[in-house]
Amino acid sequence: MPRLAGVDLPENKRAEVALTYIYGIGQANVKVVLAKADVNPDKRARDFTAQDINRLQKILESYNLEGNLRKQVHENIQRLRRIGAYRGLRHAAGLPVRGQRTRVNARTKRGRRMTVGALKKEAMTKVETAK
Description:
By secondary structure, this protein is mainly α.
């Protein structure tokens, strides 16, 4: 199992797909990296030679990847929260940051639907007695 940038790459995947398992390398970057390293994109990860891995590792060193990138993203969000920017407030509230509507969608950010409204007297007494 080849290991690049601290990540074990899946053996049975093509090089184009296997490299996207590294945080910070996407489909657009992977083509550039493979072209610079002169590695065939159709080659399986298990078929990488030691030379291929060395060339890929050398090129990936110039990218901000994995832990460093995660830290940088986290620090950027913390900076937005600290300065009181609108985006920072949205991050802090757990709401969509990029202008999406929240009236009917945004379930992944807001969580499960919760019924809010008037309760019948019987239900209200049950809730109060449970407390």
